[in-house]
Design goal:
This protein is α+β, with helices and mostly antiparallel strands. It has one domain. Helices cover 40% and strands 39% of the residues. The chain is built from two helices and five strands; from the N terminus they run ααβββββ. Strands 1, 2, 3, 4 and 5 form a five-stranded antiparallel sheet that branches. β3 and β4 form a beta hairpin. The radius of gyration is 20 Å and the shape is globular. It starts with a helix and ends with a strand.
């Protein structure tokens, strides 16, 4: 009986924590996912453009589509798209971006930009 009494409060506390966390967890993961998209873009752009300086997503313009399917052999959970600033030797310019993200705890698969 002693073990059951200790397990019940711990189980209740864990359940309460799980039920109260989703909103803040979703905000945190979206923010982290966008930061990961920025880092992935920086890696890709540096590889192809030695004059690349900075890539910054305009958070107020970001849209997200829950995808949760495979593209080829890669699983994609969310597609982020919106506006960003791409800075290189030619100066900053406004671009549209798309980022394919596989989900929490994983790095983005692909980031692509289009001229505004």
């Amino acid at each position: 009986m002693g073990v059951k009494r200790r397990v019940m409060p711990i189980g209740f506390a864990v359940a309460l924590l799980v039920l109260s966390a989703p909103e803040s967890f979703a905000q945190r993961t979206k923010f982290e996912s966008l930061r990961q998209c920025e880092r992935q873009a920086a890696v890709q752009f540096r590889r192809h453009n030695p004059t690349f300086k900075h890539f910054m997503i305009d958070r107020s313009s970001v849209h997200e589509d829950k995808f949760a399917d495979k593209i080829g052999i890669q699983f994609v959970s969310t597609i982020f798209y919106g506006k960003a600033t791409l800075d290189s030797a030619f100066g900053p310019r406004l671009v549209r971006f798309i980022c394919l993200h596989p989900g929490y705890g994983k790095e983005p698969i692909f980031v692509y930009t289009l001229p505004e």
